[in-house]
């Protein structure tokens, strides 16, 4: 029987409590599937940097490995080899490694494929036989937490050895950082010293950042691809200025690069740009595999320059899953499918394939940017040499604003976010379109066409801003009138009270 012919589509199922009775699998599927139809189309979600399309062959690999727990290294040795493994008596030597962990003599060093590929991409100082130091995470948020913990612990160890206070660590970064940095600061008790933005400059100013560094700074965090406008911060300038300051002060303040968005872009379309381990103070880098690493949501990476940059006391060793294995993550169990998908993309596309994808994204970004400029209605806030996105604001928002444009674009299926900039540029509102692999030139041209339709419609509508102002003014006038009436009534009552007292006093005097 069809699920639509069953009684289960006539009755409302409980939403927040488990139902008493079971229902057929077909009915459960149909009920959930029907609700999911109300979601937006992921490919038209232009707010997100996260990958929304992969090749069918990779989809098959993901589904085939969706029931494998990555942490079970002993049970799934081949899957483990793609990211991490350690030697133990029951398995042959394999060329893989999550971390170069020679913290104990008997631990053999193995080479992790994905981590090593990414480390080489970021120009890590590795010899032919060296294994990279890094770990896979569920995203850049976890990767940043791990990098931050490493910086904090290394700084604390040094301060303890010097007999100095170690209770007030801080990180210097721009106000344009993603919220995961605020989480790191709050969860792990680190002060976040933010360089404020200003009109026309929406990333961290290296000179101001270095000025804010003090003896308690555990690292300077530079962003390769700002969430707000896609711009690459000048990591080299930050490095050069910090080298000079370290010489003057005797400190050794390092740099972390948050390359969540830009880490898989710069090496392919700006290989000459120095932002990575070519700079001596860059000690760790995070990157999101599920952004321009071209994998579905759920995979990130963090790599360190050398093993000395990752304090060994942060590594845990367990053996209750069948073998001694190191672990340095915030969570334990996680799926293997995203690691496999990342490896698929790395070997399937290679340098040539990634370069082609990133160039296509950049070219389609330019098509969208030029189309918006031709309307004559927008200022472009983003840069051409960063993450392939277009951030733009209305030249005239006195009648209608960016939030109205965003709202009306949803009628055409487009999800385009509008937001205000952080301090001290919070008076600037922008719209942002992220160009991903699956955003074609045809879609870019169609989006411009729909934006023009929205602008035309808005011009025919009364100004919401003025209407709101009139409502506020009318409310103020009503409130003023009510207050005047209240004052008049109170004055009348006061006069009446005084008159009554006068009359009563006269009566009393007459009786006496």
Describe the structure.
Its EC number is 4.1.1.15. The modification N6-(pyridoxal phosphate)lysine is found at residue 291. It is an enzyme of class 4 (lyase). Among the domains are: 3-39, MYOD Basic-Helix-Loop-Helix Domain, subunit B (Irregular), CATH 4.10.280.50; 56-83 and 104-350, 3-Layer(aba) Sandwich (Aspartate Aminotransferase, domain 2), CATH 3.40.640.10. Strand 4, helix 8 and strand 5 form a beta-alpha-beta unit. It is an alpha/beta fold. The termini are far apart. It is 41% helix and 12% strand. It contains 13 helices and 13 strands. The strands form three sheets. It has a seven-stranded mixed β-sheet with strand order 1-7-6-5-4-2-3, sandwiched between helices. It has a four-stranded antiparallel β-sheet with strand order 10-11-13-12. Strands 8-9 form a two-stranded antiparallel sheet. The model is unreliable at 84-111 (pLDDT under 50). Helix 2 (56-64) runs antiparallel to helix 10, helix 5 crosses helix 6 and helix 10 (337-375) packs across helix 12 (441-460). The chain has helices at residues 25-36, 56-64, 77-83, 113-121, 140-161, 179-187, 206-212, 235-249, 266-269, 337-375, 402-409, 441-460, 464-511; strands at residues 133-137, 170-174, 191-195, 217-223, 255-258, 282-288, 300-304, 316-318, 325-327, 378-380, 389-394, 418-420, 429-434.
Helix content: 40-55%
* CATH architectural name of the domain at 56-83 and 104-350: 3-Layer(aba) Sandwich
Reported by name, the CATH topology of the domain at 56-83 and 104-350 is Aspartate Aminotransferase, domain 2
Overall spatial form: globular
**Unreliable spans:** 84-111
Number of helices: 13
> How would a crystallographer describe the biggest sheet?
7 strands, mixed
* Succession of helices and strands: HHHHEHEHEHEHEHEEEEHEEHEEHH
Using the CA coordinates, give the radius of gyration: 30 Å
Q: CATH superfamily of the domain at 56-83 and 104-350, please? A: Type I PLP-dependent aspartate aminotransferase-like (Major domain)
- CATH class identity of the domain at 56-83 and 104-350: Alpha Beta
């Amino acid at each position: 029987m069809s699920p639509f012919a069953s009684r289960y589509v006539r009755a409302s199922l409980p939403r927040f409590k488990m139902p008493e009775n079971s229902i057929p699998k077909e009915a459960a599927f149909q009920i959930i599937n029907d609700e999911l139809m109300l979601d937006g189309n992921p490919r038209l979600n232009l707010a997100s940097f996260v990958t929304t399309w992969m090749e069918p062959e990779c989809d098959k690999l993901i589904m085939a490995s969706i029931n494998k727990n990555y942490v079970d290294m002993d049970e799934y040795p081949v899957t483990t080899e793609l990211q991490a493994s350690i030697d133990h008596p029951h398995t042959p030597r394999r060329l893989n490694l999550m971390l170069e962990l020679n913290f104990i003599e008997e631990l053999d060093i193995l080479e992790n494929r994905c981590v090593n590929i990414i480390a080489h991409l970021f120009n890590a100082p590795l010899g032919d036989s060296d294994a990279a130091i890094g770990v896979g995470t569920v995203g850049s948020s976890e990767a940043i937490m791990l990098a931050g913990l490493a910086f904090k612990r290394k700084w604390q160890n040094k301060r303890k050895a010097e007999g100095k206070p170690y209770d007030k660590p801080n990180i210097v970064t721009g106000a344009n950082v993603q919220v995961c940095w605020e989480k790191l600061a709050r969860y792990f008790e680190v002060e976040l010293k933010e360089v404020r933005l200003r009109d026309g400059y929406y990333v961290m100013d290296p000179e101001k950042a270095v000025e804010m560094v003090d003896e308690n700074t555990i690292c300077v965090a530079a962003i390769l691809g700002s969430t707000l406008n896609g711009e690459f911060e000048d990591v080299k300038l930050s490095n050069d200025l910090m080298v000079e300051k370290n010489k003057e002060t005797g400190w050794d303040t390092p740099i972390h690069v948050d390359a969540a968005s830009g880490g898989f872009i710069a090496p392919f379309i700006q290989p000459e740009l120095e932002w990575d381990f070519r700079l001596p103070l860059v000690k760790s880098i995070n990157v999101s595999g599920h952004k321009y690493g071209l994998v579905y949501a759920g995979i990130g990476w963090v790599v360190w320059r050398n093993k000395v940059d990752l304090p060994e006391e942060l590594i845990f060793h367990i053996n209750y899953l069948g073998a001694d294995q190191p672990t340095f993550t915030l969570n334990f169990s996680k799926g293997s499918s995203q690691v496999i998908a990342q490896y698929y993309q790395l070997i399937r596309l290679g340098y040539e394939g990634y370069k082609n994808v990133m160039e296509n994204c950049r070219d389609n970004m330019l098509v969208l940017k030029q189309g918006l400029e031709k309307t004559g209605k927008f200022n472009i806030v983003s840069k051409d040499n960063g993450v392939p996105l277009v951030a733009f604001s209305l030249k005239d928002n006195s009648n209608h604003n960016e939030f109205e444009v965003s709202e009306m674009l949803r009628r055409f299926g487009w999800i385009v976010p509008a937001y205000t900039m952080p301090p001290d540029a919070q008076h600037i509102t922008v719209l942002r379109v992220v160009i991903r692999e699956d955003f074609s030139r045809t879609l870019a041209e169609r989006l411009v066409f729909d934006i023009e339709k929205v602008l035309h419609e808005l011009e025919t509508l009364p100004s919401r801003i003025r209407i709101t102002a009139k409502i506020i003014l009318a409310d103020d006038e009503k409130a003023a009138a009510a207050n005047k009436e209240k004052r008049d009534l109170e004055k009348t009552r006061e006069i009446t009270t005084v008159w009554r007292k006068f009359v009563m006093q006269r009566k009393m005097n007459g009786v006496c």
